[in-house]
Here is the input.
Amino acid sequence: MTDAELTVLGLVVEQPRHGYELDRVIEERGVRNWTALGFSSIYYVLDKLAKRGLIESAGAPASRKSRATFRATAAGRELCATATRDALTTLTPLHARVLIGMANSPGLPEAEVSAGLTERLSALRAQLATVRATRRAQEPLPAAASAIFDYSEAMLAADVAWTENALRETMVEKYDVKKVHRELYSPSSKGFSVVDVPELQYLAIDGRGDPNTSTTYANAVEALYGVAYTVKFASKNSLGRDFVVGPLEGLWRADDPAVFLARRKESWAWTMMISQPPWITEDLVQSAVADVVRKKENPAVAQIRLRRVAEGTCVQILHIGPYDDETPTLQRLHDDYLPAHGLTYNGDHHEIYLSDPRRTMPSKLRTVLRQPVKAG
Here is the structure.
C-alpha cells in the first residue's frame, strides 16, 4: 500500500468517516506535514480502497458522494494491521531534494546558494512553528498522536539545524590560493607570460626518481594530501578559519636540465608541495603530521615540513594535454623565449597540476609550467 492509502485506511479503521471529515482530521493532526494528501486525492484514495474491497459505504445516498460515509471491511482491518506492523519497522530512505541542490550548488554563484538556503531556512522555521501551534491547539493528545508530532518536530528541527550549518559554511569565505593569487594559477595557454611570485608557504617533501614508477613518489603524494586535509580541518576547528586544499605542485631539478627535455625521469629530483594559507604555523603542521603518523603506515608522512618558497620573477604558461607532451613547450621556453628576452634560469622548474589525473582525460589535463628567471 502507498503511504496515502495506509493513512486513509487507518483513519477509516479508527471509525467510519466521510471525505470532509477525513480532510478535517488530516488537517488537525498535521498529517500533511509527513504525507501528501490533498482534499481531491482523499476521494481518489477512497475509490481505490473501495474497489479493493477494503472499505465500503455505510449507507449514505449515492447522490451525495461527498458526504458518503465509509467504514472498513474485515479485509481492510486485517490489511491495515499487517501494513501498520511493517511500517513500524521499515526504514524510509532519505530522498530530500535539497541534497540534489547541494550536489549541484558548485555550479551556482555563492550568493545564489546562500539566498536559496536562507529562503529554505525561513520556510522550515515557519513550518516548524505551524506544527507546534497545531499541536498546542489539540493538547492533551493521545500517546500515538503525541509521538507523531514529536517525530514531525524532531525532523523539522534537525532540518533547520542542518540548513543553518550549511548556510554558515556557504557564507564563510574560504581561503583559496587559486583565487587569492589568480594570476599565478590561471595563465594563458597561448603564450608565455612574466609574473612576480611572492614568497609563499607549502607543505613539502623531497624525493628522487620516476614519478610514474617510484614508490617513493606515490607515498610522498599520499602523505601530502593526508597532512593537508588534517591541517585544513584543524585550522577550521581550532582557529575557525577554513580553506580550500590547493592543487599538487612540484619543483623539479637535475644536474643536467636536458634530462627534462629528454624525459629521462629516473634522473629527476623533486619536491612535491601543496600551498598553505599564511596563518598556518609549523606547530600546526607538526601536530597534523603526528596525527597522520598514528593513523597511516606511510614512511613519507614524517618527512613532510612547512617550507617557504620565494621564486620572484618567473615565466609561465598553461599546458593542456598529457604530461609527456610538455617537451615542445619547454623547448620553446629554453631555446627561444629565454634567449630572446635576455633571461636565464634562476631556480627549479615548477609545475602546478590543476587537474586530477584520475578523473581527467590525458588530452584535457591542465598544468602550469613555471620557470624562475633572471637577467642573462
